[in-house]
Write a structure and sequence with these properties.
about 140 residues; mainly alpha; de novo design (two linked rop proteins); 5 helices; elongated
């Protein structure tokens, strides 16, 4: 039963990672092509996505999100198929994503005083991935 629960949790994590991958890809393409995101008329969304915090060395933060979500997807998929070593990499990836997400939420709340809907959605995805890491039974 424990094995089945683990498979279910990692499958959920893989699906959530795919959702995050799609969002990060969308935002990266928009940033690299100079287009603006569809924010539903939210000025704060444009303020966040157009800020100096939206890029690192000219690379959109969302591009790093692509790498992170793709890694989480791959690790979760392999973990669902029983590769025990990969679980550590999945956990490390997710906790790194969690730390970066906390920093970006801090920037939005206390530096920019504006929130981006896409950023908040990504934060929610990362929080769910973190819950998967916490809820997944150890392999002992």
């Amino acid at each position: 039963m424990e094995s089945r629960n683990r498979i279910i949790l990692y499958t959920i994590a893989a699906l959530i990672s795919l959702t995050g991958l799609a969002e990060a890809t969308y935002l990266s393409v928009l940033s690299l092509t100079g287009e603006t995101a569809v924010c539903g008329g939210s000025a704060s969304c444009f303020q966040v996505l157009g800020s100096v915090y939206a890029k690192i060395a000219g690379i959109p933060i969302a591009a790093f999100g692509i790498l992170a979500y793709f890694s989480a997807f791959g690790f979760a998929t392999f973990a669902a198929f029983g590769y025990a070593r990969v679980r550590k990499f999945f956990g490390l990836t997710v906790w790194t994503m969690f730390a970066v997400t906390l920093w970006l939420l801090f920037v939005q709340a206390f530096i920019l005083h504006a929130f981006c809907r896409y950023c908040l959605f990504s934060a929610a995805l990362v929080f769910v991935l973190s819950a998967v890491v916490v809820l997944t039974p150890s392999s002992r």
